[in-house]
Design goal:
This protein is α+β, with helices and mostly antiparallel strands. The C terminus is likely disordered. The protein has 15 helices and 26 strands.
């Protein structure tokens, strides 16, 4: 087995890989930018090397510097984590040329599945259903309009080299298409250096479900079931669970078979994820893309299947066969993960960098937190603001939700804003509890939230009306702190507190009788 592995990443995923290496008694090498000199992954690794200034293009994306560190440190392999260089075929080729093992698929597999259009072509050739759309980049707005009319609105414009929702636009009609195309191309060019955009038929209220696959160098391919990833904001996942609330074994088998077809088509080796859109109406599914790396949400699959995916990545890269077969995998438990971001959910999820002044991580049965921070650590402005992943599991989805609800209440992060309050509301939502999920979930959740706030405002107005009525009926001279009651129409069903003549008035309605007290200047 490898004696030393370099982790070409930072944050919680670097910490996750270091822990897997510790389990396997493998030495670890960390790399860090100036902004990360005191980061947790730097503290935990056996060795750590400085690689540049805070911006990622001056540090974590400098693959020539990372390879230099690997050679200097004597690392035999490089684990890329996710993001940064994890799907950079040029980097993989150079790593291999230098006699270092890359823990992941071949550069050819990355290139085949790296562009969404090329991936669609491969899926079609492998007889895997895809969303109706183009396999070539759009040349003009006129062409886009013609194709959109053919498929029928609404349609999705997508950057070929895209990810994370960048270069993506939902278009409902012809009038909006030209501006949407220009915006998508501009964003794609700025984000990926490639302005190529294609068009797909938009699937209305789809579920976003992905299949975890694993392949070794001996021709073995298996799938580890599905993950439900429909709860997204700005096309980025924030809550994931395994298995999907659909809980359909036949659908899982069919999607797993399709995912393996895609893996075989590119001679895949290692951990990968094949993503699908699934119709919530008839459960028809369509290939979306393949991520040729470990996914952020891999912990929920680990908790359900009992398989350490990072450990398995390292074993497969060394040349060993998969340690499990398809028949040995089961899905008898349920796990849900929340991505905890340093963001302000009350301010359109804007990043909230700064120093963490307090940190209390939940513990107990059925709770796992993959974090990359500590009390006193600094959340940088330069990188993705995700600080941890909270995952809870149980025998049933209901038990997993109960544990997640409890863990979210226990989780405390001081000094910065986080998405924890947002998740505390999500786990109380009726649609979430019922498993009624699709990619429009958060938009509907926000509308329901506004509706509830409006309802509360209406109730507050009713209280004020009741207070005014109480005053008009001659009860405004109630002595301070003395209780009084009056009969009101039964349709006034409310309770609360209202301001009246610079006093606070509490009202409670019971069987048509409203009672309250005046508390002066309180």
């Amino acid at each position: 087995m490898f004696k030393k592995i370099l982790i070409a990443n930072r944050g919680e995923i670097a910490v996750r890989v270091i822990r897997a290496c510790r389990d396997m008694q493998i030495k670890t090498v960390a790399v860090y930018s100036e902004a990360d000199k005191d980061a947790l992954h730097v503290r935990m690794a056996d060795e750590a090397y400085f690689i540049g200034a805070p911006p990622s293009n001056e540090s974590y994306l400098r693959w020539e510097k990372i390879i230099e560190v690997a050679k200097i440190s004597g690392a035999e392999a490089i684990h890329p984590g996710y993001g940064f260089l994890s799907e950079n075929a040029e980097f993989v080729r150079e790593v291999t040329n230098q006699g270092i093992t890359f823990i992941g698929p071949s550069p050819e597999a990355m290139e085949g599945m790296g562009g969404k259009m090329s991936a669609r072509k491969i899926a079609i050739e492998a007889d895997v259903p895809v969303v109706p759309g183009t396999t070539e980049p759009l040349e003009s707005a006129e062409e886009a309009i013609e194709i959109a009319k053919k498929y029928g609105f609404p349609v999705m414009l997508k950057a070929s080299a895209g990810g994370g929702g960048k270069g993506m636009r939902f278009v409902e009609n012809e009038a909006d298409l030209k501006n949407a195309l220009e915006a998508a191309q501009s964003e794609a060019l700025a984000s990926f250096g490639d302005s190529a955009v294609y068009v797909e038929k938009a699937i209305v209220r789809p579920r976003h479900i992905e299949i975890q696959i694993f392949s070794d160098k001996h021709g073995n391919h298996v799938h580890l079931g599905e993950r439900e990833c429909s709860i997204q904001r700005r096309h980025q996942k924030v809550v994931e669970e395994c298995p999907s609330p659909i809980n359909d074994e036949d659908l899982r088998a069919k999607m797993g078979e399709a995912a393996i077809k895609v893996a075989k088509a590119v001679n895949y080796v290692g951990a990968g994820t094949v993503e699908f859109l699934v119709s919530d109406v008839d459960k028809s599914f369509y290939f979306l893309e393949m991520n040729t790396r470990l996914q952020v949400e891999h912990p929920v699959t680990e908790l359900v299947t009992g398989i350490d995916l990072v450990r398995e990545q390292i074993r497969v890269a060394w040349g060993e066969k998969l340690s499990f077969t398809q028949d040995e995998i089961s899905w008898n438990t349920h796990a849900i993960e929340c991505r905890v971001y340093a963001e302000d959910p009350e301010n359109n999820f804007l990043p909230s960098p700064g120093r963490i002044t307090r940190l209390r991580v939940p513990q107990g049965n059925g709770v796992r937190d993959d974090g990359g921070i500590y009390e006193g650590a600094e959340v940088s402005i330069y990188y993705d603001p995700m600080i941890s992943k909270l995952a809870c599991y149980g025998k049933t989805r209901e038990e997993a939700i109960d544990r997640l609800r409890r863990a979210l209440k226990e989780y405390e992060v001081g000094g910065i804003k986080t998405t924890l309050p947002f998740f505390r509301e999500i786990v109380e939502d009726e649609e979430f509890i019922a498993g009624k999920l699709d990619t429009g979930f958060i938009e509907r959740f926000n509308r329901r939230k506004v509706h509830k706030q409006t309802d509360q405002s209406t109730k507050d107005l009713a209280v004020i009306a009741a207070a005014l009525s109480f005053s008009v009926e001659g009860h405004s001279t109630v002595p301070e702190n003395e209780t009084s009651t009056t009969t009101v129409p039964s349709r006034w069903v409310t309770a609360g507190r209202a301001a009246l003549h610079q006093n606070w008035f509490w009202y409670f309605l019971t069987d048509g009788v409203i009672s309250g007290r005046i508390f002066k200047n309180t």
